[in-house]
Design goal:
This protein is of the alpha/beta class and 232 residues long. The protein contains seven helices and seven strands; from the N terminus they run ααβαβαβαβααβββ.
């Protein structure tokens, strides 16, 4: 008989507090998200963050981490934030909501950068209120970055600059056509989308979160885990 959902919730949550150096590492080819091999994924998820924080010189995960969540106005953002608040953020942590906007080009610009940043803050401020409601003892801040560079690169650079211990991103459901295009681009050395770039280039542990329909839990993807199914 399989373990109850709460068992895996606790295993995943514990993994974000850091892991021992004796934890087994995950084979590069692992990509299953079923409950059957969930125990293996949970143990290795712990090892993955421990290795990231140790080898990359990142923030230690025992206490006072900075959990950075990339936000915008989409439902994917709120789903990822909900997951982070439930399974990742501890009372001693800090939350940074990162909102990346594009620098306007090719047309007359009526707003100053300060005005654009103020408007961007207003757009994502309800998410800060949501964090304070769910985690009133955790400090939450909004960081708005306007850039003309690639969004993925900007996110990775900002997470390093802010000293993030964990980077969380919302992810849309991939269509079959999109998966074919992504694989073709990856083989050609052009890389995938923003989420894939962040997962493979971030100094800290980067986690993509997608909510399954009909209260089916979440699909979690990291550098060594693909669509790990978490029922919660």
């Amino acid at each position: 008989m399989g373990k109850p959902a709460g068992y895996w919730v606790n295993k995943i949550r514990t993994s974000f507090k850091g892991g021992s150096s004796s934890s087994k590492s995950l084979d590069e080819g692992s990509a299953s998200g079923s409950r059957k091999n969930g125990s293996k994924h949970s143990k290795n998820l712990k090892a993955e963050e421990a290795n990231k924080n140790g080898e990359g010189g990142g923030v230690q995960a025992e206490s006072g981490r900075k959990v950075m969540v990339v936000v915008d106005t989409t439902s994917q953002t709120k789903n990822a934030l909900q997951w982070a608040l439930t399974h990742c953020v501890q009372d001693e942590d800090n939350i940074t909501l990162l909102h990346v906007t594009r620098t306007p080009v090719g047309q007359a610009i009526d707003e100053t950068q300060k005005e654009r940043n103020s408007r961007a803050h207003e757009q994502v401020h309800p998410l800060k209120n949501f964090c304070q409601l769910k985690k009133p003892n955790v400090k939450t801040e909004i960081v708005v970055v306007e850039t003309a560079e690639e969004k993925g690169k900007t996110i990775v650079e900002e997470s390093k600059k802010q000293g993030a211990g964990v980077l969380v991103l919302g992810q849309r459901k991939r269509t079959s056509k999109w998966r074919v295009i992504w694989k073709w681009r990856a083989k050609g050395g052009m890389g995938g989308g923003v989420v894939e770039y962040c997962i493979h280039n971030s100094d800290c542990m980067a986690i993509a979160v997608r909510k399954k329909s009909n209260n089916g839990g979440y699909l979690i993807t990291t550098k060594r885990h693909k669509d790990f199914w978490l029922l919660a």
